[in-house]
Structures are given as structure tokens and as C-alpha cells.
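ok so i was messing around last nite and threw this chain in just to see what happens. nothing serious, just curious
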Amino acid sequence: MTSDTDTGARAVRILMHEAGFAALATLEESGAPYASLVAMALDDEGQPLLLLSRLARHTRNFLRDDRVSLLVTAPAAADPLNAGRASLLGRISETDDADARARFLARHETAGGYADFTDFAFYRVRVEEAHLVQGFGRILTVPGSEVTTDWTGAEPLRGVQAGIVAHMNADHADANALYALKLLGAQDDGWSMLAVDPFGCDLKRRDEVRRLEFPERVTNVVAVRQVLVALAERARNAA
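result:
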């Protein structure tokens, strides 16, 4: 039986994967809160990645106190107060991980124009807790470990993520389109696969990303192939 925590974690994961931007809250030296808008991507553990200037006020704040919060919301919601949103509470630190850089620039291609400026650096937020609000009356707090990606037991898949994505984009573009149009309700063509993990995959079209959650957690290439084939068949049979 699926628990409320499981469904809440799934909702937060979708928000995190689809949100390209977030409100970043940091603490001033006085203790007062300070909020700013930032571009966001995710690393392969589903942890938020930010590309920020060391000269920015929010950076000065979290270099002094690493406690931060990121507010992510459903993209283009007609009624923002009735749409899902989640506050991600955690701690931030600088990262020079090459994969983190590649994932951020794949999500935000225009950031390549300033990513190498000397005052800019990549930062990772380790999510400790997520606070979900979905419409009126559904409020839930979920541990960070439930909304990020645990690769335990799925190490064979972790090593071939890029190959799976490349294969789907080169040989199964029609399936990517079916997932977006029939299963996720997207309106336009041109979707490609951006990333895959044990819980699902991300599809991208221009600056928009949609999250396709798998029916069950997968841990190897065979299981990924089976679930993607099954989802493609479901999409073909969809009205």
C-alpha cells in the first residue's frame, strides 16, 4: 500500500525535477531572512545545483551560515496558491564536480556564457527536509532522503545513465514524444530525454522539463528497458 509519505515524496520529486528556478532564502548577518530568485538544476542524486556569483548578497550570506531554503513551485500554474509547491531545507556548499557542471548546463544552456567567469561557482544544496503544500489543506513534511535519489542497489544503472539517454534520443525520439504528449499532457513536439534515474526520467523541450515517474523503482538496464517499453505501449493506447 502506498503511504501518504510516498505520494508526498513523489509530488516533491516532480516539483524539483520540473522547476528550473527557485526562490533561495538565506540568512543575513542580523538573522533576518533574505530571498532571491535563482536558476536550479539537479545532480544525479536529485540534489539541487546552483550557479552563483561570489559577489551576490545571497552568496555572502550562506558563506557565513550554510543553512538555506529553496522554494520550488509548479511551472506556469494558473492559480499559484492552489498549485503544488515545496520548501527544501538544507545546507549549501561549493562543488567542482564535473558531472554537476554538465547537468546544470544541460538544464540551462545559456548559463554556459558566464559559467567560467572568475566570480561564479557551482553550489550543491543537500536537502534535509521538504515541506510540501498541495492546494488547500494538504500539507506534509517529508525527509530529504525520500525526495532525493538513493542509488543503493542500482549501481549498474548509475554507470550507464548517459548511454541510456543517448540511445533514447538517437533511436527512440518517437517514444520520448509519446511520453510527453500522451502521459504528461504536453502540448508540443520536440521532446528529448534529459536524464534517467531509478525513480523516473526527465524530458526536455527548449527550457521546459517534465518529469515522468516510473511505476516502480528500477535498478538495472534491463528493468529500465522494460519499463520504458511498457510506458510507450501505454502511451500508444492512450486516447
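not much to say yet. Residues 221-237 form the longest helix (17 residues).
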